[in-house]
Amino acid sequence: MSGVTLDAFTGRYAARTAGMTTSEIRALFAVASRPEVVSLAGGMPYTTALPLDVVGKLLSDLLANRGAQALQYGSGQGDPELREMICEVMALEGVVGSPDDVVVTVGSQQALDLVTRIFCDPGDVVIAEAPSYVGALGTFAAYQADVVHVPMDAAGLVPEALREAIAAVAASGRRAKFLYTIPNFHNPAGTSLAATRRTEVLEICRTAGLLVLEDNPYGLLGFDGPPVPAIRSHGAEEHVIYLGSFSKTFAPGLRVGWVLAPHAVREKLVLASEASVLCPPAINQMLVTEYLSTQDWRGQVEVFKDLYRERRDAMLDALTTLMPVGTTWTRPAGGFYVWTTLPEGLDAKVMQPRALTARVAYVPGVGFYSDGQGAQELRLSYCFPEPDRIREGVRRLAGVVEAELDLLSTFGPTAVRALSPRGPGASTPAPNTA
Ligand SMILES: Cc1ncc(COP(=O)(O)O)c(C=O)c1O
Q1: Long-range pairs for 398-401 at CB < 8 Å and ≥24 separation?
Q2: What radius of gyration, in Å, describes the C-alpha atoms of the chain?
Q3: Quick one: pLDDT band at residue 3, thresholds 50, 70, 90?
Q4: Counting C-beta atoms within 10 Å of the first and last residue's C-beta, which end of the chain has fewer, N or C?
């Protein structure tokens, strides 16, 4: 026998498992987290900057004073006190909603799952930006929904292209269920939807009878002034399902996110969530409520913003100084990500083993599309490494791109692929076919 493990259950799995593939990011995790590698791959918030002693005290007080409740099952919709506070958080981005229309979820990832579960049958279409968040694409694939991508430019989703995509889906006799969009500091593109386009996108969707699924985990992490009002803020209660999260403003390990939905949808979401997890963890919700009500959490968001701004600047400066001509990138005004396009003829996936050998990790662009685009693109994250490490990571990456260009000019594109070595992570990442 070879070393291949045969799955004895093949043939018994549900058809939907065919769409479940390893994400580029998860696959990279093992190799990218080696200390000698500068990882510009993962989008991990810098939790070291949290007041961990304070959080520890909140947690121990919580257990000492209300331990029995914190360790008990809770409401399927989520803790009412937390839902009140979530409405205050959303108000910072102009969203007015009732706590009764909020469902607390296990991160906004579970909210994505629940929304897709209640709206999408196999073969239904979800319209999404090109590129889009890999975790959402994974969810859509798991429910066998087909993604139709709409291009973005520096001002975000292109309204005219959205109109065309909606018309093309309708002309093909298929049904688009919602537009999935990340309007602020997009993961992975780093761009934001211009304020003027928000009303236009909403209007296009409203006219077409298409729901908007607005995913906004980064909205409060803007570097240049107050947040731009959310799409949901434009009198759009009946047309937008809004997702939020405490993962980027507080701590992803708590897995507390939420969905604000039109009332009827909210009822279905609660039923779906109860069927999935019974209720979100009481202790985590109570800790978030304590943190929001007793700590200067807005001040902490400012701390995060200053830190991420410095890292963004370090990355953009290093890219400007070091990257070979022909490489382009976005200039995010917030959030965690820079989207980079390699010079003509290079392939980020093919180059990846060489980058890992040079001890720098990034995420190849193909995983952020459902249709195989993105070969020339890659995502760089600046949220986790210190500025010096970011500069060093970009220096290594620039060296790899230079070497790749040398190979290309000497031997041509076919040889570049053929010469791709088996780097330290080369056997780990599985292609994301989603
Ligand atoms: C755009 C987007 N949506 C949703 C999520 C999921 O976040 P969480 O489940 O931690 O709230 C992420 C995480 O990176 C994200 O970038």
Answers
A1: 398/322, 398/323, 398/324, 399/358, 400/351, 400/354, 400/355, 400/358, 400/360, 401/323, 401/324, 401/327, 401/342, 401/343, 401/346, 401/351
A2: 22
A3: low
A4: N
- Ligand 1 proximal residues by C-beta, below 6 Å: 43, 107-109, 133, 135, 182, 187, 215, 217, 245, 247, 252, 257
From the alpha carbon of 112, which atom of ligand 1 is closest? 4
217 Cα: distance to centroid of ligand 1 (angstroms): 6
Confidence at residue 390, expressed as pLDDT on a 0 to 100 scale: 98
Helix axes 282-294, 80-91, angle to 10 degrees: 50
Which atom from ligand 1 is nearest to the alpha carbon of 257? 11
Peptide bond into 188 cis (omega under 30): yes
Least confident interval from 90-104, 163-177, 363-377, 414-428? 414-428
pLDDT in tens, 24-49: 666 677 777 788 999 999 999 999 99
DSSP 338: E
374's torsion region: left (phi>0), alpha (psi -120 to 50) or beta?
Answer: left
Q: What is the pLDDT of residues 327-338, one digit of tens each?
A: 999 999 999 999
Cα 112 to middle of ligand 1, angstroms: 9
Q: Tell me if the pTM is above 0.85.
A: yes
Q: How far is the CA of 139 from the centre of ligand 1 (A)?
A: 12
What value does the mean pLDDT take over residues 221-250? Answer: 95
pLDDT over 70, % of the chain: 93
Residue pointed to by tokens 């459902």: 370
Model confidence at 428: pLDDT above 80: no
Atom of ligand 1 lying closest to residue 255 CA: 10
Angstrom distance (rounded) from CA 348 to CA 131: 15
Residue nearest to atom 16 of ligand 1 (CA): 187
Candidate from 44, 108, 242, 288 with most ligand 1 atoms within 8 A of CB, to mutate: 108
86 CA → ligand 1 middle, Å: 17
Residue 18, pLDDT > 50, answer yes
Structure tokens at 22: 């390893």
Q: Which atom of ligand 1 is nearest to the CA of 133?
A: 1
* Pairing status of strand 125-130 against strand 176-181: parallel
Average pLDDT for 284-291? 98
C-alpha–C-alpha distance, residues 238 and 286, integer Å: 30
Mean model confidence pLDDT for the chain: 93
